[in-house]
Amino acid sequence: MRLLQLGLLLSLASGFAAIIIYITGVSNPSVYENYQLTDEDVEALISLRNSFQQCVSANGLGLKAVGGRDYCQITINFPSDTIPKWRDPKTGELEALSFDFNLCEAVATWEQVRNSTTILTKEFIDSLPNGWEEYAWQRINKGVLLNRCENKTLCMEKLSLVLPETPPYTPRQFGRCAVIGNSGDLLKTKFGKEIDGYDAVIRENGAPTENYTDYVGKKSTFRLLNRGSAKALDKVVELDEQRKEVLIVKTTIHDIMSKMIRELPIKNPVYLMLGASFGSAAKGTGLKALEFALSICESVDMYGFTVDPGYKEWTRYFSESRKGHTPLHGRAYYQMMECLGLIRIHSPMRADPNRVVKSVPSHHIISAARIASEKLLRRHSHLHIRPLSNFSLIKFRRKFHAPARATLVSQILPHTAYTTFHLLYPHAN
Ligand SMILES: *[C@@H]1O[C@H](CO)[C@@H](O)[C@H](O)[C@H]1NC(C)=O
Ligand SMILES: *[C@@H]1O[C@H](CO)[C@@H](O)[C@H](O)[C@H]1NC(C)=O
Ligand SMILES: *[C@@H]1O[C@H](CO)[C@@H](O)[C@H](O)[C@H]1NC(C)=O
Ligand SMILES: *[C@@H]1O[C@H](CO)[C@@H](O)[C@H](O)[C@H]1NC(C)=O
Q: How many degrees, rounded to 5, is the angle at CA 180 between CA 299 and CA 19?
């Protein structure tokens, strides 16, 4: 069994080196009042868990969620006759059939994502204490040679092509969004027309649409890129005939990329992603793409990410050779997301476009559970987390076109009073 602790250093296991800026709200003592859970809080957590368990049974194609030792812990089990096929290349072990998750952390953390923009901006770096010295260089390939941006001009130059002043997108700016994974399962169902009907479509890495439009559609609004794909930016832009796709790089800016953007020239907007860490299930580009979608869309549907029962092997729809990783862990995690009302899963066995996710916890239950979860997590962080800096929250408030919504800086900070927020920089990928 694996314990998935959202926002903890397990992300190291996912191939990220997480250098962390702990942002905590010590400067605001009121944040620490009212840790005690009221009866309503406890009830909310119990309701969430009950409703979540029902939802997993009703939609999980055989998955079952079992409550753990406290209100927050949940274990998602696969039927015992499931045959795991994926082996951890490091340990040689087959994947487990049982995965632990923390519902409280998930509810609170994903809510933050929904209200944040996840594009790295100059404003964001400027607003961190020592943002340039402590953080900016990490988003530059070989940034370590820049001596913590000793020459800030040089650092800014390196980032300039991908660093907008302020967030280019706002929370819920787009209505219905589809995030398209690369699973070979996509070739089992002709989702193309359905996918093209979304307001925005988010794809990953080198996923083509040409020759596969019946299955994956042709609309493409955003593309999330890992390190490898980002270095082949010239090839990636050819995947979209319109050359309008917005490219979001989840790793570092590389001189090769800058050169291509300048000299080819690449006209597509290119940004770096700023994201939170969700632990080891958040491996790879898939969950990053969902995170990005949840930060800018009203609703998020996902295609081609998950394995249905009886999967043989997780391949890519456009190449035989590349294999996915941790398919069962991923499936359990995505099922959790669906049963927290975050996404809707589409797969060969869940192909009805009008499928309604049954027994999903109501908004009322989720928001009550979130309030309780935030109290719990705050209490936890008060005891265990030593803040690096003394942060004024007010300083970072800024207004958006849509006044109720706010940037990562202004919205995340008040709520990270209770938890660690991880700024990731990429490592090998
Ligand atoms: C997120 O935004 C919604 C709507 O604007 C608001 O009701 C909710 O309280 C916000 N949540 C957080 C964690 O800021
Ligand atoms: C800092 O970098 C800029 C841009 O490359 C360069 O023109 C300048 O000479 C550098 N300054 C120092 C003190 O090295
Ligand atoms: C589509 O198919 C044609 C003909 O087989 C091939 O030349 C082309 O490279 C394919 N495009 C992609 C993106 O795979
Ligand atoms: C926090 O910052 C303020 C203003 O910069 C300063 O006056 C105060 O002493 C700091 N508090 C701590 C605990 O460092």
A: 85
* Nearest of 172, 177, 212 to residue 197 by alpha carbon: 177
Residue-range domain boundaries for the chain: 2-118+361-426, 174-346
* pLDDT more than 90, % of the chain: 44
The pLDDT assigned to 77 comes to 97
- pTM (2 d.p.): 0.80
Share above pLDDT 70 across residues of the chain, in percent, rounded to a whole number: 77
Q: What is the pLDDT of residues 140-151, one digit of tens each?
A: 888 888 888 888
Does 210 contact ligand 3 (Cβ within 6 A)?
yes
294 contacts 110 by C-beta, under 8 angstroms = yes
Compute, in angstroms, the gap from residue 172 CA to the centroid of ligand 1: 11
Between the alpha carbon of residue 350 and those of residues 59, 186, 304, 347, 364, the distances in Å are 9, 12, 11, 5, 26
Please give the angle made by the CA atoms of 120, 181 and 322, to the nearest 5 degrees: 105
Give CA–CA dist 193/219, Å, rounded: 10
Mind listing the pLDDT tens digit for each residue in 143-173? 888 888 888 899 999 899 999 999 999 999 9
Q: Spell out the SS3 assignment of 167-229.
A: CCCCCCCEEEEEEECCEHHHHHCCCHHHHHCCCEEEEECCCCCCCCHHHHCCCCCEEEECHHH
Closest ligand 1 atom to Cα of 370: 13
3-class secondary structure, 124: helix
Give dist(CA 209, CA 180) in Å, integer: 11
180 forms beta bridges with: 303
What does the pLDDT average to over 368-394? 58
Atom number of ligand 4 nearest to Cα 389? 14
Architecture field, domain 174-346: Alpha-Beta Complex (3.90)
**pLDDT of the residue at 299:** 97
